[in-house]
Amino acid sequence: MERENGAFEWFKKHNSKFELSKFALIDFHYKSSAPRRPLTLRNATITSAGTHGFPGVVIDQSLRWNAYAAHALSKGTAYVLQIKRIASANKGLPAAMLRRLYLAVAVPKMLYAIDVWCTP
To answer: How far apart are CA 32 and CA 64, in angstroms?
Structure first.
């Protein structure tokens, strides 16, 4: 990033800016007790994080996917609870519509990127 024609030169040429406070460092190491050294870029120190979220996926240092599985479960639960709110016996949607809504909204939210984190 700091080398000649690196990322910092690129953002100057393109009138852009890196927000170094939003950077995250994930250190993948086969030993969980290995020391995690920080990274220093332009007077900003980036420490190693245990987990980090990319668009739609949470990755942890050991690639066990427990953090993402919990995240996906909480998202799916939130959508199911919202569907439950409109499932009143008197004034709610019919069961067929609720099933269609569940399959179209809640299931895809829970199963996003499942091919990455779930082993069959």
So the answer is: 12
**Adjacent-strand bridge partners of 46:** 39
CA distance 115 to 108: 12
| Residue 99: per-residue pLDDT | 92
Bridge partners of residue 48, in order along the sequence: 25
Taking a C-beta distance cutoff of 8 angstroms, is the pair 56, 113 a contact? yes
What CA–CA distance (Å, rounded) separates 47 from 20?
12
- CA–CA dist 118, 120 (Å, integer): 6
**How far apart (Å, rounded) are the C-alpha atoms in residues 60 and 97?**
37
pLDDT tens-digit map of 61-109: 877 888 888 888 888 888 888 888 888 778 888 889 989 988 998 888 8
0.70 cut: is pTM over it? no
Among candidate residues 70, 76, 86, the one with its CA nearest the CA of residue 107: 76
